Amino acid sequence: MSHEILFTPEGENLSGTPWAVYPRPQMRRGSFLNLNGQWEFASCNGPFDREILVPFCPESQLSGIGEHFHENCALHYRRRFTLPEGFNVGRVLLHIGAADQKLVCFINGKKVGTHVGGYEAMTFDITAFLKPENEIRLLCRDDLRDKRQPYGKQTLNRGGMWYTPVSGIWQTVWLESVPERYIQKLNIENRGASVTISTEPAMDGKVTVAGLGEYALAEGKVTISPENPHFWSPEDPYLYDFTVETETDRVESYFALRTLEIKDIGGCKRLCLNGKPYFFHGLLDQGYWPDGLFTPAAPECYVNDIAAMKKLGFNTLRKHIKVEPEEFYYQCDRLGMVVFQDMVNNGDYNFLRDTAMPTVGIQTLDDRKLHQDPATRCEFLKAMEATVNQLCNHPCILYWTIFNEGWGQFDSDNIYHHLKALDDTRWIDSTSGWFRRKETDVDSRHVYFKPIRLKAGEKPLVLSEFGGYSYKPEGHVFNTEQTYGYKKFENAEEFAAAVENLYYQQVIPAAKKGLCAAIYTQVSDVEDETNGLLSYDRKVEKLTVERMLPIAQALQAAME
User: Fold this and answer.
1) Non-local CB neighbours of 146 within 8 Å, separated by 6+ positions
2) pLDDT one-digit tens code per residue, 304-348
3) What distance in Å separates the CA atoms of residue 105 and residue 371, rounded to the nearest whole number?
4) Phi and psi (nearest 5°) for 9?
5) DSSP secondary-structure letter at 199?
6) Which of 39, 237, 405, 517 could bridge 462 with an S-S bond, Cβ 3.0-4.6 Å?
7) What's the CA gap between 172 and 35, in Å, rounded?
């Protein structure tokens, strides 16, 4: 299927080593050797006769390859490196932010380790394999036909709401020097006006919080309760910077304080942030880019998207069926953008069962009998646990979504309790859209093809997807021949007026009657799907501040 080649402004001006920022903002050390850049590349066990720009997947334009290889084809990456003087003071760790789906790591011809899972970070201790001059080789395999592994919106035949597949390395590759006994993980658990910081493994030492002072770290743990807590919110995204120092190690990080509650206010269950009812005025965020696909050309792309949406009055992004590099969540923490984080689905998708029948109102299904393959269920749970483990320190994440529109859904009541045991500090949306069961913190609905007429009940009411209106700005469209959206408009004024009317006539009245959150589809166009508020290349803003800010103000006023 043909399409136009589009680049973001950052992609057009890409130079030097891409993604040179420190990849793990919540656990920073002084040692950092970035291995992004040009690597030798070979496909399907062929010769190393091409180069690829890491961290961009081979399917992307920015990688220099621009090709999807057949399923389960071996993708080989190779480069050489020398450690800087004084870098190897204890252990040397190789970090890879993410690679889809299966990776094997070799250092100087010796196998170091393997990893399975396309959306999570991996770490290999390569100390014992190092020489004065070193060769690293990474072998990746990806098979979208195997539905046991989470795959999200990827498909072999792009179109509509399904997108170009991604394989290989798609996040930063980097080296870190650590002492022999080092902090492997920081855990930051916020409960209201207190935060508990702990280390893995448990180590004694001290925690120094900027503006608060020093606290003893005993058996690897300390709880801090500031006398005058400064709470985090999108309007005031206050972060406390801190350092952890042990006898052998030192890391820098940050935390935030905020309270999440469900209260009965005016006869309706309300989602409350920092003790007050808060309307989560949000957008679906797919995290796709025309030039880099899974990976934007530069971290600044995240900043620009977040800033553009905040400028329009939005305070929430629903990160849809994708786990981003930690830089994305750091910018949401720093700039003040709430994240509703989806888990990434695996299992099969069935159009009749998962889309057509629910759209016409058949939304009841016993999910205990769905996706019964034990391996598929096991892989979903492993990925869910990895997602929570990797992202749970970020204060911007207030809400987890387990299943979306039945995709891969199984036994959601028990999965709710499984996730609650992993993290009971956030709200959980067990079944976004439909196929609702009993166990969930919210009543989550999708409405696209009919008026929004929702009634608040025993749980806070969330409109977790709606809108999806399509407008294609000329010269900034991926697919000029076909249009995918839930209502289609020929010009900018008609589009803007329709979105405005949708909020004023349907969403704001619903907020007065108990609606707590509304997630419009979506931040940007994505390939064939042209229902974004930004064009796919991020060069056209389809809505204005003058039209959208009053909507944000009216939604919050409706809550109060």
Assistant:
1) none
2) 999 999 999 999 999 999 999 999 999 999 999 999 999 999 998
3) 32
4) -55, -40
5) E
6) 517
7) 7
β-pairing verdict for 194-200 and 221-224: antiparallel
**Nearest Cα to 185, choosing from 220, 233, 154?**
220
Q: Which two tokens stand for residue 31?
A: 């040692």
DSSP of 403-456: EETTTT---HHHHHHHHHHH--SSEEEEEESS---S--SSEEEEE-SS------
Query: Is the CB of residue 432 less than 8 Å from the CB of residue 464?
Result: yes
pLDDT at 319: 98
The residue whose two tokens read 């989602």 is: 271
DSSP string, 125-181: E-GGG--SSEEEEEEEE--TT-TTS--TTB-SS-BTTBB----EE-S-EEEEEE-SS
Element (H, E) at 550: helix 545-559
Amino acid at 500: E
Q: Tell whether the model's pLDDT for residue 1 goes beyond 70.
A: no
27 touches 186 (CB < 8 A): yes
Beta bridge pairs of residue 196: 189, 223
- Asked if residues 100 and 57 have their Cβ atoms less than 8 Å apart, the reply is yes
CB 41 within 8 A of CB 67: no
336-351 pLDDT, tens digit per residue, is 999 999 999 999 888 8
CA 186 – CA 503 distance, rounded (Å): 42
Rounded (10°) angle between helices 300-311 and 326-335: 40
Nearest CA-CA partner of 184 in 138, 125, 130, 224: 125
The pTM for the full model equals 0.96
Structural domains of the chain, ranges and CATH numbers in brackets = 9-178 (2.60.120.260), 185-255 (2.60.40), 279-559 (3.20.20.80)
CA dihedral 423, 380, 404, 285 (to 10 degrees): 80
Residue 545 and residue 551: Cα distance in Å, rounded? 10
